[in-house]
Amino acid sequence: MSSAQPMKGPISAVSSFLIICLAYACTAPIKQVDQEIEPDSMTSKGVYVEVLGIAQDAGYPQIDCRRTCCSSLLLKDSVGARVVSLALVDERDTTAWLFEATPDIRSQWSRITELNSGKVPSGVFITHAHIGHYSGLMQFGRESMGAKGIPVYVMSRMAEFLKSNGPWDQLVSMKQIDLQEVRDQEEIALKPDISVLPISVPHRDEYSETVGYMITTGTKSLLFIPDIDKWERWELPIEMFLERVDYALLDGTFFREGELPGRNMDEIPHPFIEESMKRFSELSPEHCQKIHFIHFNHTNPVLWDSGAAKQIEDAGFRIAREGLRLELSN
User: Fold this and answer.
1) What is the pLDDT of residue 8?
2) 170: which residues sit within 8 A by CB, 6+ positions away?
3) What φ, ψ does residue 214 adopt, rounded to 5°?
């Protein structure tokens, strides 16, 4: 184990596309809070998260998709979107951590090292064993980067999966990655004033368990749950966390029911954005504006129809964009 050790015990559990926006709007919409910052507007060194990707595991456009959502006509002015990933950066001493090892890790690694004054990140946090969240680890191998002992933070089943299956086991045996096993709801202290809390969530756990992460600094916190089954399948109410954090990057894989014609969407039970907006409509405007939807499937109109994004924002919520920075200090 590295010097980042668990510190605290479990937290308390006490604590259709053209829908009518007003039905899902937070009560008494307010002006957008001034917490998001532009990359070039920072005047002092601090701690922040930058969004490195917003798409579901297969990216956008998705391979062999010939539907309108991925057609070259719609994408002619766009490079698409990279798979969900975050950079946690502490400018005070140029340290950084990567969240998720995606298929787009080459460009995302380049970006996080750029943000970190050329230094390699101090570790990688993985949520679960679906392709968009860990397959980028292959770039650490001897055919590519030839890494040396990069700390990779994972839950126990995820650690066993990597140790027991090729080619991942070679990364372990050759000490190119250094597995750091984490536990549900036990904080990992990265620094005296920066910690990460793994939070188990229900999901399709064929190969590993699934976690979200809550990043906490001395003054602010951010919740990252890119993948979860329906909110009601979780034993903990998501609202409990929304009350505690300053930002929440939440699963927005699908916009609505019927988005995948010919497929039973009960087999992939993400919370539809429509459902989430309805559930959260009774929250205060301040809590609603903490919510940034992320992890968009290529069929999600948020990616390719500005009307869908406007609908969400008019209802008092937000949409994660690549390059978005969220300030975690001051």
Assistant:
1) 44
2) 141, 142, 176
3) -110, 120
Of 319, 288, 314, 325, which Cα lies nearest the Cα of 301? 319
CB atoms within 10 A of CB 262: 4
Low-confidence ranges of the chain (pLDDT < 70): 1-43, 72-78
Domain 21-327 has CATH 3.60.15.10: yes
CA distance 7 to 253: 33
Residue 151 near residue 97, CB atoms below 8 Å: no
| pLDDT value at residue 51 | 98
> In angstroms, what is the C-alpha Rg of the chain?
19
Strand ranges across the sheet with 36-37: 36-37, 325-327, 47-53, 85-90, 95-99, 124-125, 150-154, 177-181
DSSP H or E stretch at residue 105? helix 105-115
Q: Which residues contact 263 (CB under 8 A, 6 or more apart)?
A: none
**pLDDT reported for residue 42:** 46
* Residue 75 host element (H or E): helix 72-75
**Chain position carrying tokens 């184990």:** 1
Provide the pairing of β-strand 247-251 with 221-225.
Answer: parallel
Contact yes or no for 272/19 (Cβ under 8 A): no
Cα–Cα distance for residue pair 229/233, rounded to 1 Å: 7
pLDDT for the residue numbered 191: 97
